[in-house]
Amino acid sequence: MSLFRNLIQHSTSKSKPLLTNPNFLFTSLSHFTTDTHTSPSLTRYAGLEPTKGDEKPRVVVLGSGWAGCRLMKGLDTELYDVVCVSPRNHMVFTPLLASTCVGTLEFRSVAEPIGRIQPAISKAPGSYFFLANCTGLDAEKHTVDCETVTDGLDTVDPWKFKISYDKLVVAMGAEASTFGIQGVKEHAIFLREVHHAQEIRRKLLLNLMLSEMPGISEEEKSRLLHCVVVGGGPTGVEFSGELSDFIMRDVRQRYAHVKDYIHVTLIEANEILSSFDDSLRHYATKQLTKSGVRLVRGVVKDVKSQKLILTDGTEVPYGLLVWSTGVGPSPFVKSLEFPKSPGGRIGIDEWLRVPSVPDVFAIGDCSGFLESTSRPVLPALAQVAERQGKYLASLLNKIGKDGGGHRNCDKDIEFGDPFVYRHLGSMATIGRYKALVDLRQSKEAKGLALKGFTSWFIWRSAYLTRVISWRNRFYVAINWATTFVFGRDISRI
Amino acid sequence: MSLFRNLIQHSTSKSKPLLTNPNFLFTSLSHFTTDTHTSPSLTRYAGLEPTKGDEKPRVVVLGSGWAGCRLMKGLDTELYDVVCVSPRNHMVFTPLLASTCVGTLEFRSVAEPIGRIQPAISKAPGSYFFLANCTGLDAEKHTVDCETVTDGLDTVDPWKFKISYDKLVVAMGAEASTFGIQGVKEHAIFLREVHHAQEIRRKLLLNLMLSEMPGISEEEKSRLLHCVVVGGGPTGVEFSGELSDFIMRDVRQRYAHVKDYIHVTLIEANEILSSFDDSLRHYATKQLTKSGVRLVRGVVKDVKSQKLILTDGTEVPYGLLVWSTGVGPSPFVKSLEFPKSPGGRIGIDEWLRVPSVPDVFAIGDCSGFLESTSRPVLPALAQVAERQGKYLASLLNKIGKDGGGHRNCDKDIEFGDPFVYRHLGSMATIGRYKALVDLRQSKEAKGLALKGFTSWFIWRSAYLTRVISWRNRFYVAINWATTFVFGRDISRI
Hints:
Strand content of chain A: 15-25%
Number of strands of chain A: 25
Radius of gyration of chain A: 25 Å
Structural class of chain A: alpha/beta
Keywords (chains A, B): FAD, Flavoprotein, Membrane, Mitochondrion, Mitochondrion inner membrane, NAD, NADP, Oxidoreductase, Peroxisome, Transit peptide
Mean pLDDT of chain A: 83
Subcellular location (chains A, B): Mitochondrion inner membrane; Peroxisome
Largest sheet of chain A: 9 strands, mixed
InterPro entries (chains A, B): FAD/NAD-bd_sf, FAD/NAD-binding_dom, NDH-2, NDH2-like_C
Oligomer: homodimer
Domain FAD/NAD(P)-binding (chains A, B): 58-389
Protein name (chains A, B): NADH:ubiquinone reductase (non-electrogenic)
């Protein structure tokens, strides 16, 4: 590692201004190897070589969601080099994403750069963040294949590279499920990434503006301003609540000409918030209906560009369609030849290891307990992912301290206590500073159920302290205060 | 107007939930007319009819920049209905745009929704904002042709409509000039709109991340991290300053692996900040060089996707190219059969009227004094546009009060004092809280020249109070404070 550092410094001191010296210094770096099988002009296959015995072991983390980021935050960078591979250079604070669509929060307030979660990634010589997708995995050789993400840049073609790992943590999350319904991917917007929220916001504001134009028919106006949310889980309910709140508070004022045309419909096949306590569910239904959300029980059969069709044949014209019906394993996870848990996730044991695959762990939505553990597959919740990341960070730190950090070196290490999940309760907000908090351990258990402003405030505050930096905590507080005083932002940029 | 209001209320009270009653109520509104020449299924040509004698006269404003927004802010909405036509629903606070590219400020802090500048637009029954481009003008009939802007929405095709005006204010600004150089529009990014700043930011951060990847050649790394700015006016200088500041403060910390590869080059054919006082120019040159910006004198001949070529044959590879070499008249302004000022802008007299075209005014960058006025064409500055907007608002309010608001009614009205421009000085920031302020009336005059932090602070504070709402003033202050404490934001969303 020190060699690498020296070479960097060496190359730096020799580098000259570009325009006076167009011949760049080509430095060969021991760590960055070039695959010699391809022709020199197409040399795009390189990577990070295996670490040597006197170097720090390398933990490679695939993904930058709750699980991966909490893990990286907790890893001891005195013990390990950390390499993160993800198509996204920030973590999304998902519980607050719905609020950004309507301008309650800024987009950046809910995105935390990985370099701020684990500073070593941007500073330490052997730690990196790679903006790339993982495309393959060789458990025998301890390597992963990656391909760079270059969208938005037409001058660079994506290229492939290989990374050797000592420990591999798969934390790639899950994918929004469409249940094979045609047209969902083409016409609906999911609510999982910041760019989804941006798309929803742009579309909502454009629809509002278009519907004010002369020459638009009444029918078209009603269609453009009909916002349909499919899926009555916490995300769908929260988004519906924020949206109707936005309509009640801001649209009435700012788009007075069309305020009576805008409507929100929430479509759910069963019950909304089905995992919540009965009394909370009734409270949510009452509150949503009161704030103008139409709750419709139905199953979507087909999605067209301007309408969706339910199984009973009802046609529902829409201007904005948000899809949040849960998640399932991604194609990459499906393709892995690992043991699988019920539901097709990567199968793990009590220590979050993938059994029979040395040095590979899986956490978060992409993983599930194997049937052999006799434990239930945990729900796809931020809470679970966060707890698993935290646990695995301690476990890896322990292994590292005991000298088992390098590949195939942890056979004789005592792993200690297995991971135990204790459900702290579920929460869903339903617009205007109201929230449901269900503190029961499971659907069958008895326990405390809270609703209203206090629960909203306590829960949010508690959650904010988990991963988010002080900068963003500060911004979120400022955003809330500003929205409270001045109303939401409605510029479409 | 009251009829219109009644009809709106009428239609509202009858509207029913969408899903229970799919037959929408079609209300014919007196104000929104439908062109009967097209077939009913393609009814897309409609508009706002001429106002009647007992209705408020209608001021139509084309554009939502400094000139148009300052005008709308000042118009007395007791006297006039205001209709704004623009492809952008917000005003951009252009002096702060450069700061948003590197994360010093949030994008939304520099965008002010028009509905906040002139609340009547979103509330008053006869006032509207139309997200549309103006495509034609009939001075005889007092109408403008418009076409809706629907980008980002694939389910709606753009349509045309017509608006009748009593007074028309053309405030459409100017267009970035490329001097006919090939490849500028394809490969360079301008810095005039918020989406330009977003594009610059996304590209800069992507280049930084890509250059950290294994498998990238040294040459490619240097190219990706070479930021070239063409044009040494205030915008080019400010952006270079912000960028080098970002590199010195943030990239060194956050992208330690590549910090020695990133460079900023500013290319200018003549002198940077040529309109400024000599001593200020020297100070700027010294400060920029000190902070690592390479100043190159040269003329660009050709722009390719990965390099630009100067007239002396030098090839300059770049990863990011920002173009800010001044502005010229837009194709629409060129197409207007109006008298023109030197430089091809819409020719105006001392009262900002377009002579011989009744009820039409032009302000801001799209307008210039006719030679017959013996006045010089004013520079394309926010300051000029702002002052013209303010003046014209008072003039139109005076005309309205004197009963000349309707079309062809102001012949006997005394217009009062003509518009007089007093230059308050020019400013440019050059990174890290340093600014130049030139208080001379013109290039030849003598006067006060300030530099450093105090001038930066005073000037910014003064400017912020012009158009921006309290909400955004507050946000800008918070953004500055946060950047000061926590450093800039580096998430790529």
